[in-house]
Amino acid sequence: MPALAEPSCPGNPDAIGTSRTITVNPADLPRIGSMQYKNTLPLADHEVAITFDDGPLPPYTDRILNILAANCVKVTYFLVGQMARAYPEQVRRIYEAGHTIGTHSQHHPFRFGEMGLPRIESEVNGGITSVEAALGDPRAIAPFFRIPGLARSRQVESYLASQSITVWSADEVADDWHRGITPDQIVQRAMRRIEAHDHRGVLLLHDIHPATAMALPTLLKELKQRGYHIVQPVAPGVRPTLPPAPTVPAVAEKEGWPRLLKTSAAAGEHPIKKRAHHRKHIARDDHDPVVSATIAKKKRKPQSAEVAAPGMFWFLR
Fold first, then answer.
1. Contacts for 139 with CB less than 8 Å, ≥ 6 apart
2. CATH number of the domain at 20-234, please?
């Protein structure tokens, strides 16, 4: 379907705007994102859906919301439950700005694909409950879930399917979680990968990094100049008006997210190991035994490093 004509954006005639919405029903699209699955959003040529993971986290979430509002762009957020509990005002601001809100677990555990069913249920439902507490209406949460680190497993996917929740992977990433990446590099990688992927796709970004906030105005400008259109995925049904904000104070958990972790071979979390681990999860053919077997043979010497937790799934294009 061709994109609809872009609406005017008050105060910014050069804004890219949001061309159209697309309703995503879990019954019709249970899994999204060609990085891992066979199906993705039914986007037309030069259509992009932008998504943000791991927030909210002021001030970067607020800066990104300001940029999106100035450009009349609507996106999809996948929020971490403990972040929603710590910053409920930002959660409500995201929703009231017209964006779609999905969830991203309660604590963002790295090894999601290795967890047993009880913890999967706790992480999924805990994240939903925390975001619901901030919004005050369960209908305001889309039945969309992005697995932390994209670390899928059959058990995770089966549980989400049983709850009628769409699993979101992505079509493109911009590596904005990498420490030291510059705003220009984020823009360059995003545009290169979108254009290499049939000039369309679901783009995964993170709203907790200063470099992403700095890159976003240029990214939107580049998309506009190259003839792209922004599409907003939405859940089926009527979008509710939020009730008054609850008076319950924000709750910050003892070990808040995001955080820096000191990792080592003893902890089993060094970067090289995580690269191999996530290549297995991001294999395009679902649970390809050949890919998994190949990765299992690759062993490297342990290393120690300080790595940033948010958005870190070490996917290399």
1. 237, 238, 240
2. 3.20.20.370
Is residue 145 left, alpha or beta, with left meaning phi > 0 and alpha meaning psi from -120 to 50?
beta
Provide the CA 19 distance to its chain's centre, in angstroms: 21
In this model, does residue 28 exceed pLDDT 80? Answer: yes
Strands (E), the chain: 20-23, 31-32, 47-53, 76-79, 100-103, 144-145, 166-168, 172-173, 200-206, 229-234, 260-263, 305-308
* CATH 3.20.20.370 domain range(s) in the chain: 20-234
Q: Name the residue among 175, 176, 207 with its Cα closest to residue 76.
A: 207
Question: pLDDT tens digits for 102-161?
Answer: 999 999 998 999 999 999 999 999 999 999 999 999 999 999 999 999 999 999 999 999
Phi and psi torsions of 227, nearest 5°:
85, 20
* Token pair of 15 as six digits: 């804004």
At 27 the three-state DSSP class reads coil
